[in-house]
Design a protein that fits this description.
Length: 527
């Protein structure tokens, strides 16, 4: 007796085989049979005529570490067909916590109404396991958290003992089940680290088979050097590399795309273990304080906000922004104030969805002053969307064989505390947007290629065995979608919108989305 029998679906196996019609049977969490005609009895039969059946999508780049504790139903992700999320990205993991990282993590957790009751990776994972999650979760251990734990948030270099302490924290997290090590070399305190520090830490993870996933040092003026650094770190640490949310920021850098593609081609032909992921939008999203030069981002979020109360500091920052000479991934400037939209600023709900140019004009301030004021009032927690990429570059990168799909978003819900922000729509729309806009409408990828970039390639890179493929014996993480109608509905002004055309999602053999409705099942595992 099967648990589930899916009849007459158009199977996309995730490994790249052409679509074929088949029945798929599921039992005890796994795919039991894939055949032209399955006549076995099943507790539940789904008639899937006209629907495509793919392996559940694997999102290699998310920040749902805390939001899954708020709402384990993972509404915004599971409804896209995502059955596994990799968390702990961009150097930010909720564990291990020590020293200054405790207060920093508590401040962020407080914005979600969460008490931080854990310190180790194992204790954090226990929080995920009870009560469980709708989808599978694969955690990374983050450099910023580890560095903050040992060195704090200032511009300092580790002594050999401190380097060893950091390596020990990474190794412990790996022993407790982390999948790899992530950096956010664009964020404090990660950007103070020299390459050799990161190599040591990536090696500590690689000894356990861990991946090195990086938000690289620059995605704008120095993107090529930053990609080269990530590749070097992986080679010297002997780690598989994942370059996160690959893109080229800023009008003045758009032309670098050809050199970037050439670098990726060269890396691929050398057989280096390097991959990249991308979200299908020409706009990015991060904290507003990322607009500040590195020297102004020391000491943690509260210290940064405090610094901006000082008029002398503001004058110095204004000069740095105009001259663009200090060390920093400068994404601010006069042509872009219209292109920066505020998405999160709890004490100022009136500014959500407005551009900095609009806010500055309404308040009779210069844009930079308005930016500083929002960072101060939110104690550094204000976030924004930046419309500064070229759409054609999004398409060109999507086609590259090294590039897979990842959201860089969160598991969210329109209800409760998770619905109170105005997030980037990628949290709700990434995977259906690729299938609808870039496959069906623009034909940037074939359906099989797109699904492969959402499943088997990612599973292989992150060492998720028996996932990301449809074949007998693999875990039954599955999504049924309508290739004619699948589409994202979330927009920048109305982001909390579920996609359409995805009626069924199965995680570890349990139906979580059933005819478009969440069953409240929590069958996900910590992988
Ligand atoms: Zn990032």
């Amino acid at each position: 007796m099967l648990d589930i029998l899916i009849k007459n679906s158009l199977v996309i196996d995730g490994a790249g085989k052409s679509v074929f019609k088949a029945d798929v049977g599921v039992t005890e969490g796994r795919i039991a049979v894939v055949a032209a005609e399955v006549e076995l009895e099943a507790k539940r039969t789904i008639q899937a005529q006209g629907l495509h059946l793919a392996p559940g999508f694997i999102d290699p780049h998310t920040h749902s570490d805390l939001t899954l504790l708020v709402d384990p139903q993972a509404q915004s992700k599971i409804r896209q067909g995502v059955t596994t999320e990799v968390v702990g990205n961009c150097g930010f993991s909720p564990a291990p916590l020590a020293g200054a990282a405790v207060a920093e993590t508590r401040a962020e957790a407080k914005t979600f109404g969460i008490d931080v009751t854990w310190t180790s990776m194992a204790e954090y994972m226990a929080q995920l396991r009870d009560p469980g999650t709708a989808l599978n979760v694969a955690p990374l251990v983050g450099h910023n958290t580890v560095r903050g734990s040992v060195l704090g948030y200032d511009d300092v270099q580790p002594t050999p003992e401190q380097q060893a302490d950091m390596e020990r924290l990474v190794a412990e997290a790996m022993e407790q089940g982390a999948r790899g090590f992530s950096t956010g070399l664009f964020y404090p305190p990660g950007f103070y680290a020299q390459t050799k520090e990161v190599i040591g830490l990536a090696r500590a993870a690689a000894r356990y088979g861990g991946i090195y996933a990086s938000h690289i040092r620059s995605e704008s003026d120095h993107v090529l050097e930053a990609v080269a650094e990530a590749i070097e770190i992986g080679e010297r640490a002997e780690a598989q590399v994942e370059i996160a949310h690959l893109k080229v920021h800023g009008h003045r850098n758009w032309g670098d795309i050809d050199r970037l593609l050439a670098l990726l081609d060269e890396t691929r032909s050398r057989g280096a273990e390097v991959g990249c992921d991308q979200y299908p939008y020409a706009a990015s999203s991060t904290w507003l304080m990322a607009l500040l030069p590195y020297w102004a981002q020391t000491g943690g979020a509260r210290a940064i906000a405090e610094r901006l109360r000082d008029p002398d500091m503001r004058a110095r920052l204004k000069q740095d922004q105009e001259e663009n000479r200090v060390e920093w991934d400068n994404r601010s400037g006069p042509p872009t104030w219209n292109d920066i939209l505020i998405t999160d600023c709890a004490p100022r709900p009136d500014v959500l969805g407005k551009s900095i140019a609009e806010i500055a004009e309404a308040e009779g301030k210069e844009p930079l002053e308005a930016t500083f004021d929002l960072i101060v009032v939110s104690e550094g927690q204000a976030a924004a969307v930046f419309f500064d990429q070229l759409e054609e570059n999004v398409r060109v990168l999507m086609r590259h064989p090294l590039v897979v799909i990842g959201s860089d978003g969160y598991s969210l819900s329109p209800r409760g505390v998770l619905g109170q922000r105005n997030p980037h729509p990628r949290s709700y729309g990434t995977f259906p947007r690729v299938l609808g806009r870039y496959v069906r409408e623009e034909k940037v990828l074939s359906l099989e290629e797109a699904v492969k970039k959402m499943t088997s390639i990612t599973a292989e890179r992150f060492g998720l065995s028996n996932r990301g493929v449809i074949r007998a014996g693999a875990w039954a993480d599955l999504v049924l979608f309508d290739a004619q109608t699948v589409a994202d509905r979330a927009t920048f002004t109305d982001p909390h919108q579920y996609p359409e055309g995805i009626p069924y999602v199965v995680v570890n053999g349990v139906i979580v989305i059933d005819q478009g409705q969440h069953t409240h099942a929590l069958p996900g595992r910590v992988l």
